[in-house]
Specification:
The chain is mostly helical. It has one domain. Helix 1 packs antiparallel against helix 10, helix 5 crosses helix 7 and helix 6 packs antiparallel against helix 13.
Amino acid sequence: MKIKEQHIYIILAAVIVIWGLNTVMIKYLSFFPPAIIAAIRMTVAALTLTPIIFAYRNKYHITKKQWGYVAGIGATSIALHQIFIAWGMQMTTAGNASLILALNPLVTAILAAIFLRESIHLRKIIGVILGFSGVLLVVGGSTHTDMNSNIGDVIIFISMIMYVVGGLLIRKATSSGVPVLLLTACSQWIGALFLIFTSFIIYPMDTIVQSFHIDGFTWFVIGISGMLATGLGTLGWNMGIQRIGASRTSIFLNGMPIAGMFFATLLLDEPLTIVVAVALLLTVAGVYLGSTTPKLVKRTSTLKQTEI
């Protein structure tokens, strides 16, 4: 049974809201060592998605080549992305992080044009310029202009790059036939295991044990972040991609910096200055232009397909 399109829109809107809130939750959890908190959150997410693996156990068998894609996705868009975002959040604000992470579709368009030879039209180029201008404005005009904050912004940008690289690998994997839901669940487990292994290598056992001695509210935040934001949020996002396509789904990312800024101001008392407001408008406009296709391009594409 297919989910109705209007229901998909509701799901995607909910995903964006919870992802915006997730930047605040990760900021709240930034007192943890980065790899450890990432390992805990991703394990919660992997456990949430485990039923998908059992549902597909007799329906689809992943080949060796496809496992290579799955491993790459787990390492980049999950493990490294989560380590860098947890690390960067220790030095920057949740608001800055929301704006930087919102550049995802613009950076995807650039890398897809370079490595996958996808076309990039003038509208998308303008979107990229506006989007990056917004981020540069808020980073350069931030009240947190110390070196650590700037380093934190760079680290968040690297985390976003890791997520984009994983997204390109997802395109390769799904084009080879791997069901997107199975791909999500398997790569989530690989990312979680990678993070667990990394934590045991770089941290002494005492540090790992002490990380579990936390209060009930902190465990609640970890559960919401891992289960809702990462586990079910990713599932809802991929359902959107399956039902209405990647380009239409990506438009919803316009709302992520707005949600992130709102929750950062409401829950963390981060200031919403005029500079931040202008940067937010530039970033949202840039993401919208960069993630939508002009009607003329769509018609031309349709005509070419018809001629073929």
